[in-house]
């Protein structure tokens, strides 16, 4: 089937099997390998993308579900050479080690901070509980999200 959607602000029209998984479409058909797959079963959050601004697990979505939607992946997060404030906070706070969880963690954080711009640490922990990280022990990720939230509030 032919599907039409927007990917990081650019219109896409592609022919694909309607039951292709979105993570495969992004990585294998469209070359957007920033979105990661680990568990493939909705358990780890590595494949998180934004669909109309809401975080979704791309390993559990089918291509047909993208019809008419606007998708954001990690490739669309920064603006030119300038990192998004959440990305910058992850760098500044040392919240990235191997980096495999980072794209999903960042996408989930964008959605979360849109809904809760001034979270406490427990709310951050709860919000990101579906995103697993094998490296950092999470503390630096919480630090980064807290710092990004403050930075983004200051920008308003
Ligand atoms: S790869 Fe999608 S949730 Fe783990
Ligand atoms: S930084 Fe390695 S899994 Fe999170």
Task: Outline the secondary-structure elements.
Blueprint: E1 2-7, E2 10-15, H1 22-29, E3 48-51, E4 54-57, E5 70-72, H2 85-92, H3 102-115, H4 121-127, H5 139-155
Helix pairs in contact: 2-5
The structure holds FE2/S2 (inorganic) cluster (2 copies).
Residues 37-40, 42-47, 57, 59 line the site of one FE2/S2 (inorganic) cluster (FES).
Q: Top keywords for this entry?
A:
binds FE2/S2 (inorganic) cluster, 15% strand, 2 domains, alpha+beta, 35% helix, Ubiquitin-like (UB roll), DNA polymerase, domain 1, 156 residues, globular, 5 helices, five-stranded mixed sheet
Can I get a quick summary?
The protein is of the alpha+beta class and 156 residues long. The chain folds into two domains: 2-75, Roll (Ubiquitin-like (UB roll)); 85-155, DNA polymerase, domain 1 (Orthogonal Bundle), CATH 1.10.150.120.
Detailed description of the structure:
The chain is α+β, with helices and mostly antiparallel strands. The protein folds into 2 domains: 2-75, Beta-grasp domain (Ubiquitin-like (UB roll), Roll); 85-155, [2Fe-2S]-binding domain (DNA polymerase, domain 1), CATH 1.10.150.120. Helix content is 35%, strand content 15%. The chain has a 5-stranded mixed beta sheet with strand order 2-1-5-3-4, with helices on one face. Helix 2 (85-92) crosses helix 5. It is globular, with a radius of gyration of 15 Å. The termini are far apart. The model has no long low-confidence stretch (mean pLDDT 96). InterPro entries: 2Fe-2S-bd, 2Fe-2S-bd_dom_sf, 2Fe-2S_ferredoxin-like_sf, 2Fe-2S_ferredoxin-type, 2Fe2S_fd_BS, Beta-grasp_dom_sf, Diverse_Oxidoreductases. Keywords: 2Fe-2S, Iron, Iron-sulfur, Metal-binding, Oxidoreductase. This is (2Fe-2S)-binding.
């Amino acid at each position: 089937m032919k599907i039409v959607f927007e990917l990081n602000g650019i219109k896409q029209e592609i022919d694909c099997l309607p039951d292709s998984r979105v993570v495969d479409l992004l990585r294998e058909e469209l070359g957007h390998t920033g979105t990661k797959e680990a568990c493939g079963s909705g358990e780890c959050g590595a494949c998180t993308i934004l669909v109309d601004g809401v975080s979704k697990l791309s390993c559990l979505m089918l291509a047909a579900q993208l019809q008419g939607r606007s998708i954001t992946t990690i490739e669309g997060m920064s603006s030119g050479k300038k990192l998004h404030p959440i990305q910058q906070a992850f760098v500044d706070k040392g919240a990235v080690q191997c980096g495999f969880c980072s794209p999903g963690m960042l996408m989930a954080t964008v959605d979360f901070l849109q809904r809760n711009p001034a979270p406490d640490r427990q709310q951050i922990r709860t919000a990101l509980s579906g995103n697993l990280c094998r490296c950092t022990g999470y503390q630096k990720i919480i630090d980064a999200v807290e710092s990004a939230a403050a930075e983004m509030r200051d920008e308003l």
